[in-house]
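From the pipeline queue, job 12 of 40. The input is one protein chain; the requested action is below.

Action: predict structure.
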Amino acid sequence: MRILFAEDELDIGNAVHQILNREGHVTDWVIDGVEAWECLRSNFVCYELAILDWMIPGISGIEICQKLQRSQHPVRVLMLTAKDTISDRVQGLDAGADDYLVKPFRMPELLARIRSIQRRLDSPLPATVLKIGNLALDQNTLKAYSIANPIVVIDLHAKDFRFLEYLMRHVNIIVTREQIAEALLLEEDANTQNLITARVKILRQKLADIGFPEAIESVYGQGYRLVCEAFGHRP
């Protein structure tokens, strides 16, 4: 899971950051609320979970949570705080937090709460389905679909499926034509670039057909990028 961790206590921050990465998560640690908010608003990274210290300087964790709630940002929030009264918990949950953990805490409990949030994120779709925002890709049926209302489904050619899967696994990362050729198992010859251009055009149209017309961005001189916010991630 891609996690943003906002904590200004350096000992806690360093320990949690190392353990989260050791557990297999991709974790970005910041020590300021302004930087945390900028990370969450970024077009380049899609976080599934934000672990926010309530009293982090700059913009407090509770303020960030309120901003996320107002903008209907899909990231899940786990609030960390020394505030332990019932009214504090209610305030945090009402601000949009999905869970609340009081300091000092033990790492096994933090990891258990993260697993619980991850199960809630994963539960609507089977393990064979990749998902970014409202876009889902079924690896069993070779279908892509919007999970917004109404649900719209398209069938994909095997190479289009492989191409979209590759882009989804590298969302918001610029991929070069050489990387695309390797992912699609294309032989390097004079026609390779034309084939890639054709595949991009076809896939763009198919994604537009299910409601995502701005999904694939051309980056001049570099390659292409699957745009995270095109599927409902932008705040």
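Job complete. The domain at 2-122 is CATH 3.40.50.2300 (Rossmann fold).
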